[in-house]
Amino acid sequence: MRPGSIRSTEGNVVGCLFKAETQNITSGVIHHPAFHIKSYPAVKDNRRVAETIHLFLFSQRVSLLSCGHLQMELRTFWLSGRSVSNYYELAQEYSLCSRSGEKPTRSWQENSAEIELLFGFSVVDPVERIISEGRSPEMAPKEYQAEEHQWTLEQLAEHHGAKLDYETVKKSAGLNTSEAEKRLAIDGKNRLTPPKRTPEWIKFLREFINPFMILLQVAALLCIVAYALETSIKVNLYLAIILFVIVIGTCVMGYWQERKSGGLMDSFKNMLPPKCMVVRDGQEQKVLSEDLVIGDIVIITSGDKIPADVRLIACQDLKVDNSSLTGESEPQSRNAEVSKEENPLESANFAFYGTLAVDGSAWGVVIRTGDNTLLGQIAGLAGAEAKETTLEKEVKRFVYFIAALAIISGIIFFVVGLFVIGREQRMIINNLINTIGIIVANVPEGLPATVTICLTIAARRLAQRQVWVKELESVETLGSTSMICSDKTGTLTQNRMTAVHAWYDDVIHNVKSPLGTDKQLDSPLNIQDPSASRLLRIASVCCRAQFEAIPMGTTENPSLMERAIIGDASETALLRMCESYFDSAEFRGRFPKLFEIPFNSSNKYQLSIHSVTNETAEFKAKNQDTVVDRRMRPTVYGLGNANTRPAANTLRPSASAYDLEAMGTTSMLQRDAPMVTEDGDAAANFALMQREAARKQSVTANRLRQHTKAFQNNEQNAMQKNAQKTKNITTRLLAFKGAPEVVLKRCSFILINGSRVPLDDGWKKKFANTIETLARGGERILGFAQLEFEDDKDPSSYNVDLRNFPENDLCFVGLISLMDPPRPSVPRSVASCHSAGIKVAMVTGDHPLTAQAIAKQIGLLTLPTREEMAEERGVDVDQIPEEEVKTLVVSGMELRDWTDEDWAKHINKKQFVFARTSPQQKLIIVSHFQGNGEVVGVTGDGVNDSPALKQANIGIAMGIAGSEVAKEAADVILMDDNFTSIISGVEEGRVIFENLSKSIMYTLSHLLPEVLPFILNMAFGLPAALSAQLILIIDLGTELAPAISLAYEGPESNIMNSQPRNIHTDKLVSIKNLLYAYVQLGIIESACGFASFFYVFSCYGFGIKDMFSRVHFGDNAEPFAFQGKVYTADDQLEILKMAQTAYFVGLVFSQLANLVACKTRYLSVFQHGFRNRTMNFAFGIVLAIVAIVVFAPFAHVALETRIPPLTSFLIPLPFMFFIVAHTEVLKLLKRRQMAKERQDKIARGEIFA
Question: Three-state SS across 1101-1135?
Fold first, then answer.
């Protein structure tokens, strides 16, 4: 049914809402995926119908151009004498596409009730309808929808109001200026809507309302209150100042970090052309691209960026580079024919906003503008609000806990104090000051600095391992990742097509590496074999790729892999293969090209005719030990020594076929090789990444050059010169290359051991079996044929239209298979992921067979698929029970029809490969995994990946091959585009969480020993064992350096053998950690401090009963006599200060033992070692502070400390040993428990050994 029509109950087309005031609508049903109008009577006043529906849609805040899959389209309504175009889509929030987050002015029910009252329409709530169909509203596909690719020119003109000449399109008048201005006023500018900009001053102030900052600010204000109540206690003022300094410094750092990361929409703007050529008022004219409207006719020429989504109406050899938008690596041929494709993204008569016209020219009608284009939809999806990282959630949760603990402790302390020490004004003030001290003592002032330093250190480490972190908090999310959805091309593979196998003489042979690193091959291609030499001859001469000339005088002498090649990926691979066996330029010179039919997607073959200047010439094989100067002509290194090929029957190319690390070359193409400078300078690494990205763009530019008119003209001129030079040579060679089945149809013979034999059914069956075998390996296969013939006609007379050359009865020579090989380090990295309990899903736009083959090679698929299980058992696929299938290989076409029940059935499988997926499907895949409780990391490099990168818990963009849009949307950038770098990031992320957890446990352990003296003093009259000054020294002195030093602790050796943390149960501060810090270590350290405290008093004859008597150690204390010596009130205060100093020493020393214990969470510290130099330095800092506090005279005045008996320094030693031994026993028990759990999971098949 034609879009824009209304389907009646009988199913026939009875009307159209185009210029609705002249139409009559009879009873029927208007069908729309999210907007159903049913069972309405005949209505004569169509103006009223159109106006009401228009107002209804407008009230829902409609943006009506984003989808074109409707069966009803409300097109041109005449309201108040104005033409209102293109309001034909349902409200975005109800079609699940809204990005504004605003609510409609009226509810769905209110609007539907009004329409039903006026016209009898029954409007179905689309959300209810989607749910009734078994689909989740949040998971509803947001595919790019359009139907114009299936429309005729008449339909296109009618529905978009385009002024077309159906007979001669290029005589079309186009819109007139006044009509274009009306449409522009209604539809708006053809540009992407910028996101709301937050003023910089608001961004800065937001830093101060961070939960932790609020906690510190409240603590500072309480200190000021305490100082106001008792101005003689200066320490409260000092503490307030310090806290405010910490707050301001941390907020400035946070604001600066956030300011560096924006600009996503700016990167989209860079893809848009400023001006374009249109036809208006019957004339060609240049207008601003943002002034384009739907229905405009645009003229596209080579080198132009497409200014809007365009349906082509006339086309001349147009090729469009869609790589930045859809991920397709090769330029796509376009045409103006009506398409039969259902998917508009695969239609050849569409050109999309922001893509590049590489060659040719075309005319087209604008069908989408601005936010409603494919690029606009992607930009809208990618422009979502920044998500909260797992670390931010954990820190916020910790802050809430600390705040609650501090407030509850303070309230309890104050209330109890009212009953214990009295309700007199002086006592209440003292009680309030002590309460404030309790609250502030619970606040870990050094934690913000610890978190920031910990993240900064991790980011610096990752920069040295080729991972650039845009937002520091994202590093921990990478460590929490439980699922990685990885693109295939360029991440898991090298994004470099390589020849791997050749089939001739009914044997599959291995092809030598382009750099000649194979010392010995199983069943190698032998250039001396007659059939092999003929196969290589065709591969060399029937190839348009050519090395870019190296200027004379250039000092560089690049290797084969470094040489720039003009040509597409497949022909580049063939040229490099040939060049690795012989000098291809010299060889081609013996077979001058006379005529050529280039490869195209419709013919699927390439044909060339050559003169044979020396029919018996042999290949000049390269000397194995000679290095030839490549500045004169394209020759390369000879054979070297390296790795051995696997057996040919495995059909699994070894790393030596493409392992650049193993080749010992210094090429910048070694994308797996480290790019880190010796000093680990991240800026230098980033510059290297930028240079490599520029080189990548240069390679892409060379690949596109063969599609330009200039290149084609040069080729044509060269063939004309060859024809003139060799017109007297009658021996000619026809070389034929293409899709294997296309080549075979042209052949009557096959070359076997250098001799032609008839191509009978037996050989055709062997051919088919070989094709199936190679295809199962995910290899792209090309067939090669030849025909040697005599012809005395003028070579320049060959003509593609006249077909005056032989094309049939060719001799089939063989097959060459190509593939984009996996990165050599990827299988090991995938195994590391499995060992770490991380699932790896391949999400690619490639063919399912290719994706499945690569997945098996890298170890991503280790379990049989449903089809393989059925084949092995000899049963039908449907007979395999679903619960036995642990692997999922599914295409995008199947995903389009999946309901929530389908997802629920498959989401818990162990291994996943998603092939032929669209950007929206990638987003849906990520959303479903997240809904299943996974922390999802997504890799991507194209504009089309940006929504999924933004949706993921951690978006990972490619630094070299990635587009600027993808990099802006991502949280992390891989500077070497290497999947292995992700594993490094996961490890660092886990280290961050572990180190932060250790630091928090270390910090919390000393809170009870600080608070307990206040409680005992208030409740039982025990002299305060710790002064406020010493608490300040501990919190901001002795504790800060050790807590920060834990951030420098390296990973435990088993960190990648443990499962990813469960973000719902494994918290930064768990109940178990709190019990350990407060109940176990807190009590032990308190006992250590009080042991030292009481020891000092015992040295002067004070017993425990004397200390709780409340008559000593005050300003008006009673004298105390011991062994004939009387201690006055002043003497008692001096003893108290010594005891407080001893408590301080005991607490600090026990914390040093705790620091050693906190180095690891599972391993023994003696296994882990003491290589953390920062921690060793922190030990020195702590001891220096202790020495100053205890022995420095100025500290005795400022902090009121005294030198305790030297024997008191021995008291903490047994407690220190006990802390270390206690934690070692706990770790041993943990290790045994973890080992048992791991073995159980391996036995159940949940993880791999």
Answer: CCCHHHHCCCCCCCCCCCCEEECCEEECHHHHHHH
